[in-house]
Write a structure and sequence with these properties.
Elements (H helix, E strand, L loop, with lengths): L2 H21 L5 E3 L2 E5 L3 E7 L10 E5 L4 E6 L2 E6 L3 E10 L2 E10 L9 E4 L7 E7 L9 E7 L2 E7 L5 E7 L17 E2 L5 E4 L2 E5 L2 E3 L6 H4 L6 H10 L6 H5 L2 E6 L2 E7 L6 E8 L3
Parallel strand pairs: 2-8
Antiparallel strand pairs: 1-3, 2-9, 3-6, 4-7, 5-6, 7-8, 9-17, 10-11, 11-12, 12-13, 14-17, 15-16, 18-19, 19-20
C-alpha cells in the first residue's frame, strides 16, 4: 500500500492512542492537588499511584522556599505556611515519576466563607458526579467521590482534608446504596464538575472542601446539616451547649449582635430551618 494511502489509517491510529493515553490514570498524583492555607497553618499531603494508594520513598520540594516549610511525616509530608504567596508549588518525585500540588497561602483573616480549602482533580477521562459522606470509623475514609468513566463507575475514598486513600473501578453506572453513608451531605466544590442534589437541601456544587467557618454560627449552619455538623459549628464559634440543650429539636443561640434559632427534624436530626435575628439596642 502506498505511504500516502496509509496516512488516514496512521492518523486514526495516533488519534486512538492519544485518546487511550488521555484516559489513563496518572502514575503519580499529589492529594489534594490544590489547597488554600493561612499563614501559620499546617496541612498534610500525600503522593498516590494509579490505585489511589500512597506511594513510598517520595522526595518533596516546595517553591518558593521562603513561603512554606515541608516536614516528612512517614510517607506523607506536612506543609507549614510561613508567608503569604499566591502561587506555591509542592512537588513529589519517586522512581522517575513526579507530580505537583498548587497551594495559595493567604494572610491571617483573609479566608472568607465559601473559600475552597482543597480540591482533587477528577481521574483523566472521567467526570465527577457526586460526593458522599462516609459513616465515621476509626481508620476508614471520611467521604467517597463517585466518577462516571467510559469503563464504568470509579469510586475514590478520601479523608476530610483531601488525602486519597484508594480508588476502585466498579461495573455499572452508580454505586447507589452500596456506599455507606450518613445522614448529612458533605458540602464542597467539584473542579469543573456539575452539581449534585442532596435531600432536603437545594442543589449545590459538591466535591472539594469549603470553609464553613464564618462570622457567626448561624451563617455557618445550613439546612440538611446533621446535628453533629451543627455541634461542630458551635464548637468552632466557641459556643457551649449543655447535654440537655443539644438534644432539643430547637436551639436558640445568642451571639454578639444577633440571635439564631436552629430547628432540627425530630426523626432524622437534620437541620430543617434556621432564622437569624439582628439584635439592636
Amino acid at each position: 500500500m502506498p505511504f500516502r494511502n496509509r496516512l488516514p489509517i496512521l492518523a486514526l491510529s495516533i488519534l486512538l492512542s492519544l485518546c487511550v493515553l488521555a484516559q489513563a490514570p496518572a502514575r503519580l498524583t499529589v492529594s489534594p492537588n490544590k489547597a488554600t492555607m493561612l499563614v501559620g497553618e499546617t496541612r498534610t499531603f500525600r503522593a498516590v499511584g494509579k490505585d489511589g494508594r500512597i506511594r513510598p520513598n517520595v522526595r518533596w520540594e516546595i517553591s518558593p522556599r521562603y513561603a512554606a516549610e515541608v516536614t516528612m511525616n512517614g510517607d506523607e509530608v506536612t506543609v507549614t505556611a510561613r508567608e503569604a504567596s499566591p502561587s506555591v508549588m509542592l512537588t513529589a518525585t519517586t522512581e522517575g515519576d513526579s507530580a505537583d500540588a498548587s497551594i495559595e497561602i493567604r494572610a491571617q483573616g483573609d479566608l472568607k466563607p465559601g473559600t475552597t480549602l482543597w480540591s482533587v482533580a477528577p481521574t483523566p477521562g472521567c467526570k465527577t458526579t457526586q460526593m458522599i459522606q462516609a459513616v465515621p470509623s476509626a481508620n476508614g475514609p471520611d467521604l467517597y467521590v463517585q466518577e462516571t468513566c467510559p469503563d464504568g463507575t470509579m469510586l475514590r475514598a478520601l479523608t476530610s482534608d483531601g488525602r486519597e486513600l484508594w480508588r476502585k473501578m466498579l461495573a455499572g453506572k452508580s454505586v447507589g446504596a452500596a456506599v455507606p453513608t450518613s445522614n448529612g451531605p458533605y458540602v464542597g466544590f467539584l473542579p469543573n464538575g456539575p452539581t449534585s442534589p442532596a435531600p432536603v437541601k437545594p442543589a449545590e456544587p459538591v466535591g472539594a472542601h469549603i470553609n464553613s467557618h464564618s462570622t457567626s454560627m448561624c451563617d455557618a449552619v445550613s439546612a440538611g446539616m446533621t446535628r453533629d455538623d451543627a455541634m461542630n459549628a458551635a464548637t468552632q464559634h466557641n459556643i457551649k451547649l449543655d447535654a440537655k440543650q443539644r438534644q432539643r429539636d430547637t436551639w436558640v443561640i445568642e451571639e454578639q449582635g444577633s440571635s439564631c434559632t436552629i430547628s432540627f427534624d425530630a426523626t432524622t436530626g437534620n437541620v430543617v430551618k434556621k432564622k437569624k435575628t439582628i439584635v439592636t439596642d
